[in-house]
Specification:
The complex is a heterodimer of chains A (317) and B (208). Chain A has 317 residues and is mainly α. In chain A, 61% of the residues lie in helices and 5% in strands. Chain A has a 4-stranded mixed sheet. In chain A, strand 3 and strand 4 form a beta hairpin. The radius of gyration of chain A is 28 Å and the shape is globular. Chain B contains 9 helices and 2 strands; from the N terminus they run αββαααααααα. In chain B, a hairpin with a 2-residue loop joins strand 1 and strand 2. Classes of the chains: A mainly alpha (317), B mainly alpha (208). At the A-B interface, helix 3, helix 5 and helix 6 of A face helix 3, helix 5 and helix 6 of B.
Chain lengths: 317, 208
């Protein structure tokens, strides 16, 4: 019997099963289809088999890290949430996914990684607290730089004076996009009727992040809250497929608590080591610069003036 | 010659296409549509909210897939780059500027491809994406004359623009236009618009 598929993704926070957009989308899809995945929620991307999150390790040992490819693989393994869709609905899925990627994604990146207040108070705080030492010092900053670069490439290079206008335009388009999604959803339970499809997984991941994270500067959040059917849609999916996330304490499910406790001895060991290193550095500096010197009691001192010798001996003892 | 003119003009106006009305210059499809709408003409007024949402979504699909695929083919496929794109892009400039600018643009486009996740795609994968996109468009069009039944909308204009260009531009390999030709309703759609609005006989869309 082949090994079960293992999914490595970012851990949960802010009332959600995962704080990362891609991880959340993949997790939600897996839940929709009931795929038997062994989920590892980790906070250290270096411990994932591909170095990035999310990553799927298939039963043959292959590692896939692009979210769309992960979902394609699950489909191939017969866990297909789009099985009942008509051809026209499949075409609609492609179209709406493009809409999400073009209009909502840049703004989401901007909200969480570029907007100074949000980044410092929410995003960086979560990542810095969640990641193990010493990654928490440089990895959040690196991730931010990657996201900023990606945003710049998505939107094109612009001069600093144009940035405010560009920002306004971006948010304007995102608000329009949310309104469009709301109109398309109407009063249905899911986008294509009563059963969730892959489009629902992606839309949910975008909306849930916007809705649940407590952002100090949440311009788009305010607009989203005004679209009641989208809010109800998110809450419905959360309560149906991730019922225990609200308490922010995941019960020991497929994942044993091992990944977490494994971190504990390392954390303690790292703390002790760093303290020892600090002490050693201080002692070494003191010795080398002569503030403190260790001398073996000499059997006979070199002849010196008595007074000075006495004074020195007294000092050093 | 027309290519030189195009390159020259795009440097002046910033982006093609653009329209010049009085002393205003409006460029790119989105703003032009808005501008015309503000003047009281809009093609999508007859659509209901859900249809408008679908139209916007399909326009994004075309932008996302077809436009990016065209860009990929122009700048990341070595055969096309060497034979056609470099020469075309650098034509308004003297040596060595034409080479330098062409390489710079190519590097820029490759960076953008990487940012959106197309950096590692092979030509076959790109063609497959185009095929998927065409399939989606074909299914949405079905047997209707236009995407939203009787009247053409912005989506029809956008799709026609892209498909017509793909079908009539000669590149080093014809695989892109072959993918589009697989869908007979899309071909018929292009021919119909060309005849109706541009009055030409449709011999310009080659059938081979």
């Amino acid at each position: 019997m082949a090994a079960p598929m293992e999914l490595f993704c970012w851990a949960g926070g802010w009332g959600l099963p995962s704080v990362d957009l891609d991880s959340l989308a993949v997790l939600t899809y897996a839940r929709f289809t009931g795929a038997p995945l062994k989920v590892h929620k980790i906070t250290n991307p270096w411990r994932s088999p591909s170095g990035t999150l999310p990553a799927l390790q298939t039963s043959h040992g292959e590692v896939i890290s692009v979210p769309h490819k992960i979902i394609t693989h699950l489909r191939k393994e017969k866990y297909n949430a789009d099985y009942d869709l008509s051809a026209r609905q499949g075409a609609d899925t492609l179209a709406f996914m493009s809409l999400l990627e073009e209009k909502l994604l840049p703004v989401l990146i901007h909200t969480f990684w570029v907007d100074a207040k949000n980044y410092v108070e929410v995003t960086r705080k979560w990542y810095a607290e969640a990641m193990p030492f010493p990654l928490n010092f440089f990895l959040p900053g690196r991730m931010q730089r990657q996201h900023v670069e990606r945003l710049q490439l998505l939107c094109g290079e612009h001069r600093p004076e144009e940035e405010e206008e560009l920002e306004k335009e971006l948010y304007q388009e995102a608000r329009e996009c949310l309104t469009l999604l709301s109109q398309r959803l109407g009063s249905q339970k899911f986008f294509f009727g009563d059963a969730p499809a892959s489009l629902d997984a992606f839309v949910f991941s975008y909306l849930a992040l916007l809705q649940q994270a407590k952002l100090p500067s949440g311009k788009l959040q305010a607009h989203l809250r005004g679209l009641h059917n989208l809010c109800a849609y998110c809450t419905h999916i959360l309560s149906l497929y991730f019922p225990w996330e609200g308490a922010e304490v995941p019960p020991p499910r497929q994942t044993p608590a091992n990944p977490e406790t494994e971190e504990e001895p390392y954390r303690r060991r790292n703390q002790i080591l760093s303290v020892l290193a600090g002490l050693a550095a201080m002692a070494g500096y003191a010795l080398l610069s002569g503030i403190v010197s260790i001398q073996r009691a000499p059997p006979a001192r070199a002849p010196r003036t008595r007074a000075l010798g006495m004074a020195e001996e007294v000092e050093e003892e | 010659m027309s290519l030189v003119a195009e390159a020259f003009v795009s440097q002046i106006a910033g982006k093609v296409p653009f329209i010049h009305v009085g002393n205003q210059v409006v460029s790119e499809l989105g703003p032009i549509v808005q501008f015309v709408k503000a003047k009281g003409h809009s093609l999508s007024d007859g659509l209901d909210e859900v249809q408008k949402a679908e139209m916007k979504a399909y326009m994004e699909l075309v932008n996302n897939m077809l436009l990016t695929a065209e860009l990929y083919l122009q700048w990341c496929d070595e055969a096309t780059v060497g034979e056609i794109t470099h020469a075309r892009y650098g034509s308004p400039y003297p040596w060595p500027l034409n080479h330098i600018l062409a390489y710079q643009k190519q590097w820029e486009v490759k960076r953008k491809m990487k940012a959106i996740g197309w950096g590692n795609k092979t030509l076959d994968q790109v063609l497959e994406d185009v095929d998927q996109c065409c399939q989606a468009l074909s299914q949405r069009l079905g047997t209707q004359p236009y995407f939203f039944n009787k009247q053409p909308t912005e989506l029809d204009a956008l799709v026609f623009g892209h498909l017509y260009t793909i079908l009539t531009t000669q590149l080093t390999n014809d695989e892109l236009s072959e993918k589009v030709k697989n869908y007979s309703n899309l071909l018929a759609f292009c021919r119909r618009i060309e005849q109706h609005y541009f009055g030409k006989v449709s011999s310009s869309i080659r059938l081979s």
